[in-house]
């Protein structure tokens, strides 16, 4: 547990300073065999390099050594919430992401449309990745025909392609439930079972719902059932404002990242439709009374998953080109980091530390470039993700001295 | 909580070895815009550089990332006491600093002489910084005329200029009290209120005392009342000897630092009157049976607060010139560090890590100079303040092996 403990009650105070937190999703990489350079080292980033030369550098650990962070834990860590302590299920994250009005006590899960054969075996775990439109049509059909259990409200909300959010609202629900996804095809789904007595009523209820859904979708050829994952009960977190005196706003294209941001009390009013649009939104919001601006850039991670080295390099360069517009706003603190590494050679999230830059007038610069190796020797050193917010607060003049 | 836990009960044993802990107050700095060098990097320090070449180097964190340490927490950390766990109030620190005989259960506070106008508003929060002599005169007047509350002893002891220590002794006292300093002029002081039921009697009693003092000083033009801060009850700490088998002695000119040293059980018999006098005292004490010699040098911090880059550089060079006299004594371990950073560009204590050198025959040297950037890559790496004493004990041959 590395959650932040401020040593004094009144260590955080209001100050008219602005912090910009730029997250390049999956930023960290591994060296290309033919050049020995990582994606970030290979990218031409004159603006990030210039910023690095006026920044404290370090290598950030989102969770703990060897642990690969998902997007939720990775971002929670950057927001100053220890992701092991503040462990929220995928279901709640998804619900927050699609903007469902989720309330304390609600249980949420991620449902994936799947194709079942006549014997009830899973033949496609993602139902051929239906279009968003097709998914919306089938979800609407389910919602129309599904008989609501007594005293409980069951809601399905399409997320993207095969991904659907399940929200259950009622008294005395529990989320200690097993997942039904068998993680392979040609077999039946796992049974949905309670892992604790407090979740048994919920398990029974959801078994009936999943069974009813199969009946309702019996005439559908492809999207004819669901696999359920990531059950979670929603308990709201203390907000960024409560913990750190920060009013935050998120500028993120994808629902998941807005969901994590909303979870910690950020506003998420602007949804950019492009990489450039992210900075348009920042400029538009700059006049408003916010302390922390969280900018999310997704493409680095996507190319990492695709194993597309040059694509990830290009995605970094695209963000680099936007840096002058951000520095022109003269934030008090600029942080550039990632929520985890997604090395293109690895094609998945990884446990490697993430190169991180913190710019303010009080930085201790050590290098002229932004990259894994230049960050290794930096003044921030090897920091935990949750140490970033206290450092940002300090550099922004928002912490009072501890003791005389 | 990073307090030290030794893995074995008998891990500390007596050994005829001596450790010198040299603290340059506020040592850490930030690079000067025109040279890119910090105060320590800019200073000509042939002796410290020579020592660094035979030392393990590192960057020390007094409290936690982003947290700016006051002098009390900063020194406690260096002495091996986690300052968040061992959180002592300013009042107790001040009382220890002026050498008051403070006992368990006593409540202490820092009083500042202030000037009140006829309407009872604060017109000068420090009463024009009276001379020590003037402060002593007014305190004596108060002590002579103040009627002691029943069963309670109230004592005022002048500290320096406007600073006075309040000591309250009696049964069932509490220190959970609000401060009266409004932190601005032209307004009335805040009321002194209890934050818990156990402190209500004390609150009532001290409100009466502060009111009586105003009556007694009604004819004084300048020092005509007090503002009260930093209430704290005194609970003695386990000593350095109890925790680490170390008999320590402090050589410090200023009361505050002797106070923290006394708090952890150091003797504080020698009070040097100059920078050179600090080493005179060390030489005089060297024959005595001590294990840890704590030398405090204040000027680096003072110049940092004044924003005097060259002054801080010169203060470092002055200490550097004394190093040969210290090494000539052949201590088993020499540590040079600071209790926090006070960058001249920042003009205040800051949260930045502190360059640190640990010299012994068992060091792993990595650089030929003592500075922020040379320490970044050192063998000690990024250590927490409380890790220094275990390292010193190890280098001094005072720790037995853990396990076979």
Describe the structure.
The structure is a homodimer of 404-residue chains. The two termini of chain A are 28 Å apart. The model of chain A has no long low-confidence stretch (mean pLDDT 93). In chain A, helix 4 packs across helix 8 (255-263). In chain A, strand 3 and strand 4 (122-124) form a beta hairpin. By secondary structure, chain A is α/β, with parallel strands linked by helices. In chain A, the strands form 2 sheets. In chain A, strands 8-9-1-10-11-2-12 form a 7-stranded mixed β-sheet, sandwiched between helices. In chain A, strands 3, 4, 5, 6 and 7 form a 5-stranded antiparallel β-sheet that branches. Chain A folds into 2 domains: 19-87 and 238-395, Alkaline Phosphatase, subunit A (3-Layer(aba) Sandwich); 94-233, Alpha-Beta Plaits (2-Layer Sandwich). The first copy, chain A, contains 13 helices and 12 strands. The longest helix of chain A is centred in the C-terminal third of the chain and has 19 residues, at 309-327. Chain A has helices spanning 39-42, 46-52, 71-78, 90-97, 132-145, 200-216, 240-244, 255-263, 275-285, 299-306, 309-327, 372-376, 388-395; strands spanning 19-24, 55-61, 107-116, 122-124, 153-160, 163-169, 225-233, 248-251, 292-297, 333-337, 354-359, 381-384. Chain A binds chain B through residues 4-7, 11, 361-362, 364-366, 377-379, 381-383, 387, 389-394, 399-404, and chain B through 1, 30-31, 36, 38, 59, 63-74, 83-84, 87, 90, 93, 230, 256, 343, 345-346, 348-353, 372-373, 376-377, 381-382.
């Amino acid at each position: 547990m590395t959650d932040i403990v401020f040593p004094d009650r009144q260590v955080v105070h209001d100050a008219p300073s602005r912090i910009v937190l730029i997250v390049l999703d999956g930023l960290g990489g591994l060296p290309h065999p033919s050049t020995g350079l990582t994606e970030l080292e290979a990218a031409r980033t004159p603006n990030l390099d210039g910023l690095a030369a006026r920044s404290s550098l370090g290598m950030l650990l989102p969770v703990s050594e060897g642990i690969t962070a998902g997007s939720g834990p990775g971002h929670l860590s950057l927001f100053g919430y220890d992701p092991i302590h503040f462990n929220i299920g995928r279901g709640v994250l998804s619900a927050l992401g699609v903007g469902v009005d989720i309330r304390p006590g609600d249980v949420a899960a991620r449902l994936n449309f799947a194709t079942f054969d006549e014997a009830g075996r899973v033949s496609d775990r993602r139902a051929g990745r239906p279009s968003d439109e097709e998914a919306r049509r089938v979800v609407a059909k389910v919602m129309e025909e599904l008989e609501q259990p007594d005293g409980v409200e069951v809601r399905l909300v399409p997320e993207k392609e095969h991904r659907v959010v399940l929200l259950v609202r009622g008294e005395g629900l529990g989320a200690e439930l097993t997942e039904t996804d068998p993680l392979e095809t040609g077999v039946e789904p796992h049974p949905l079972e309670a892992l604790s007595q407090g979740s048994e009523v919920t398990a029974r209820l959801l078994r009936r719902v999943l069974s009813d859904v199969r009946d309702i979708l019996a005439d559908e050829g492809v999207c004819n059932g669901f696999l359920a994952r990531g059950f979670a009960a929603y308990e709201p977190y203390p907000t960024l404002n409560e913990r750190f005196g920060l009013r935050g706003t998120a500028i993120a294209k994808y629902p998941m990242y807005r969901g994590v941001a909303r979870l910690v009390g950020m506003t998420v009013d602007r949804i950019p439709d492009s990489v450039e649009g992210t900075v348009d939104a920042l400029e538009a919001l700059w006049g408003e009374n916010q302390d922390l601006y969280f900018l999310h850039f997704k493409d680095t991670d996507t190319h990492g998953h695709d194993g597309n080295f040059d694509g990830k390099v290009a995605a970094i360069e695209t963000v680099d080109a936007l840096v002058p517009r951000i520095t022109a706003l003269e934030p008090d603190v600029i942080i550039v980091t990632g929520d985890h590494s997604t090395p293109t050679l690895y094609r998945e999230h990884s446990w490697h530390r993430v190169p991180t830059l913190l710019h303010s007038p009080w930085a201790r610069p050590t290098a002229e470039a932004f990259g894994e190796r230049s960050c290794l020797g930096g003044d921030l050193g090897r920091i935990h993700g949750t140490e970033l917010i206290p450092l940002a607060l300090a550099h922004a003049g928002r912490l009072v001295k501890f003791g005389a």
